[in-house]
Amino acid sequence: ETWRIGLEEIEGSVQHRYAERFKELVEKKSDDEINVQLLPYGTWGSTYSALYDAIQGGAIQLGFGSGFLGGTVPESQLLNLNYIMPDDQWLTAKVLNSDAFLKSEPWRQAFRARDLVALAELPEGNQAWTANKAVRTPADMKGLNIRVMDNSLLRATYRAYGASPTSIAYGELYSALQQGQAEGNIQPIFAHEEMGFYEVQDYMIFAGQSQFVATLIGNADWYDGLSDDQRAMIDAVTKKLVREGHDIQTRFNKKRLKAIRSKSDIEIIELDDAQRDAFRELARPVRETYIEEVGERGEQSLNTLLDAVKKADGKQ
Ligand code: 6CS
């Protein structure tokens, strides 16, 4: 039996390392009855919607869905809202993978309604902005042609900051930045490095707005057709990979930040709390936009997440 897993990222990425570990664990636990095949970005077609379509249709059993998944599962845009998760990245990984959120009815149904199951959430690290100018305040972002993933909530968020967001495919982003079709970018550090984006940007800004989060999705019919033992195995593997996934992203992002610092003279700007608060305030009403655009199941998903965050924060 072969399970294929489609990745939104290239070899050497956080998704790829996670998938390698998923493969190792599944093959070992199944005594090699299951063979897991990794399909990195570029091997399954050129647009993310082709990947999600293939998973929905069952041609590919498993894969990752992040910012672009909003077109397929609108509720998933929840994971793109800014300033809703704790600053503590490990706490975020735990909350997103808790039964209270991941197995909650609204979240489950959002994926089921599109013939998908959400098996795990993979936070891939804090995202940094890059731009060809220094950004410290919303005024600095005014009119900035910043590239966002194709996701209406991200567009709404960056419009709220005053920017002019534009959506460009991941594979076309390097040349778009180089040629000035986009003046800014938003990525976790490892991606700024491995895709070379930092080479064509002058400033890197840490505003603490959100981690990059991808959902490990599976085809619902495929999942329902598995044996109970196989489903329990997936559960055990994804549970184990919550900690490992966090460790992978931490290691990758630390190392790649060092590499960026040593290979370039990009200027790194850390916003202080007051500067972050200015963006935090502007991001707040976008929660309402999410509810308006996505509807009741979106509102329930947001409330479930905010509840889970509050409980986890209180227990810290
Ligand atoms: O910005 C993007 O389009 C892509 N960035 C990362 C880090 N992963 C996949 C995503 O689609």
Structure description:
This protein is of the alpha/beta class and 316 residues long. It has one domain: 3-Layer(aba) Sandwich (D-Maltodextrin-Binding Protein, domain 2). 48% of the residues lie in helices and 18% in strands. The protein has helices at residues 14-29, 48-57, 89-96, 99-102, 105-112, 138-141, 152-160, 173-178, 189-194, 220-224, 228-263, 273-283, 286-294, 296-315, and strands at 2-6, 35-39, 62-65, 116-131, 147-148, 166-167, 184-188, 203-206, 211-219, 267-270. The strands form 2 sheets. Strands 1, 2, 3, 4, 7, 8, 9 and 10 form an 8-stranded mixed sheet that branches. Strands 5-6 form a two-stranded parallel sheet. β5, α7 and β6 form a beta-alpha-beta unit. α13 crosses α14 (296-315). It is globular, with a radius of gyration of 19 Å. The site of ligand 6CS has 11 residues, from β7. Ligand 6CS binds next to β7.
Secondary-structure class: alpha/beta
Instruction: Estimate the strand proportion.
Output: 15-25%
Report the order of strands and helices: EHEHEHHHEHEHEHEHEEHHEHHH
CATH superfamily: Bacterial extracellular solute-binding protein, family 7
CATH topology-level fold name = D-Maltodextrin-Binding Protein, domain 2
Please give the radius of gyration in angstroms: 19 Å
Report helical residue fraction.
Answer: 40-55%
Counting DSSP H or I runs of 4 or more residues, the number of helices is: 14
Q: Which spans have pLDDT < 50 for at least 5 consecutive residues?
A: none
- Anisotropy-based shape: globular
